[in-house]
Amino acid sequence: MNNERRSGDRRGYQPSRRPDSWRTPGAGSRGSGGSGSERGERPAQVRGRQDDRRQDDRPRRDPGPEIPDEITASMLDREVQRALRGLGEGNAEATARHLVMAGQLLDEEPEAAYTHAKAAFSRAARVDVVREAVGIAAYRTGRFAEALRELRALRRMSGRQDLRHLEADCLRGLQRPDDALDVIKDTDTSTLDLETRLELILIASGAHADRGASEAGLALLDRIRTKALNAEQLDRFHGVRADRLEELGRTEEAKAVRPQQPAATAASEDEIVFLESEDEDDIR
Prior knowledge:
The chain is mostly helical.
């Protein structure tokens, strides 16, 4: 077992369900975070070099796991296919097929998805979407240090901010909740959608609990306008809130919150999710 994995309940985050560009249609939930966890367990419970942009098809060190014949590069999102055009033709095809497999296996067989993502990495380490695939697969299999490294590399390469919640959760998995809170505080949320902003606050709540400050974690949750959440988001929110209440010994309140809540009307992503705070440091 990878020594970066840790056990224990994750308190505060249930991954996103949105598809990633390297995941093919029908591949299931988003790797950036989607997992089998229900009430925000830690990733450990979920189980689940060089620049190769050379224009030749010389054999690589490791061909990686086998891929069924029906898996083709054309199954990838077109934007990802364009990102692979700088590779030699044969290498681009092989890399793409490994990415397809990684996306299709991520939910049910995350370890197998990880091996395919690593095979793609061995061929195209400087393609940002490949770093994304490795980072998410590493996260899903509890390899938090590797996931954090790859997600940071992706952000440097692409400027993307939409996976900062995973960076923060990796730090939680590495028992660094203070650093997780720093990442969240330093994230510009103005360009993020409702789902990602929600996940940031849920992770922050869990990080506070990791520090033994469940009261502060609960206070963060009380800032969320639940009317803005859809049914799935609302269910995650109530699960995390129940965790905080239980940690504070408020078991009866937790039991009342824990059952599935009525579905909420979906809100526009432009709607503000969090109540304004007079103290900008209260996320800490």
